[in-house]
Amino acid sequence: MTEPVSLFQHLTSSAEAGQLFLEPDAAQTCSEACSVFIDSLVELSSITEDLLCRDAFGHLPSAQALGQKFDNKAIGPGGFADVLQQHIDTVTRMKALFDAAGKAYVETDAETRARIAAAHLDK
Prior knowledge:
Elements: H1 4-16, H2 24-46, H3 61-75, H4 80-122
């Protein structure tokens, strides 16, 4: 299966090239949904520091090690904060795709109208 990064970049490029269209109202609805979701993810991301619990298990070395493991799951490499950022990045690319596809539809529609009007005037 294609990675989300390359898939959405490819689809966005197709939309920008006028090869992928999405009805403007649908594109706007999807783009707005992405914006709302991004805002929610950013809000969650901003509170990941609150998940730190290193000292919650006491002062013994084993308690500190256990706390560190939980901290790593929250903000360490590959932890919750990283996963949230990956989701933010993916949904941002999705939003760009919807915006580009909606714009491509509008531009193609305008071109078609202009061609029809020009052909009608030529007669």
